[in-house]
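#dry-run=false #mode=assembly
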Amino acid sequence: QITLKESGPTLVKPTQTLTLTCSFSGFSLSTRDVGVGWVRQPPGKALEWLALIYWDDDERYSPSLKTRLTITKDTSKNQVFLTMNNMDPVDTATYYCAHSTTTVGPFDQWGQGTLVTVSS
Amino acid sequence: QSVVTQPPSASGTPGQRVTISCSGSSSNIGSNFVFWYQQLPGTAPKLLIYRNDQRPSGVPDRFSGSKSGTSASLAISGLRSEDEADYYCATWDNSLSGSWVFGGGTKLTVL
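#status=ok
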């Protein structure tokens, strides 16, 4: 059974850097074709893809946010990290991590999400 | 503004068949698979359809997906009250360096 859970600060100030952790079980990021991605959803708005990292360290980023994002993984600890710098109130959203495979496609299993509010 | 477009709302009565459209272009839907997600109120999204028309195990066969050219559709037959949710399509877009893109979402109301 695949499970994912996001953790990190619930409140960050404008201009600060956000670091989120996705802790998962039921799969390994050393397994071929497996990836973990991040998706966010501002309150009342649509889903937005942010980044995805694959088993072979291939990293993909949303072009519109690429300069602000870094995705990394710790395979031994079953964790994926997302950092987003220069946070702004418009970045207030629920941030989800999700399991992906190149065989099925993106985001076949999701974490519960974590709400991050950007405010001074 | 997403590069793939969905109607903001749809509705139907119990037992009806409803369809939700997802319109894109040759750089996304026209050349890549389409995925559909269901988001029940207050919960995380759930994969409903992958690779245009495939259902993950556990998804009822009342849900079906199709794709033609630069558009895709999600059909829900035998509509039930528990189907009231937001539905999102997603696909890969080949422009720039490539990215996953979601539609703006369709809120389905069961009348």
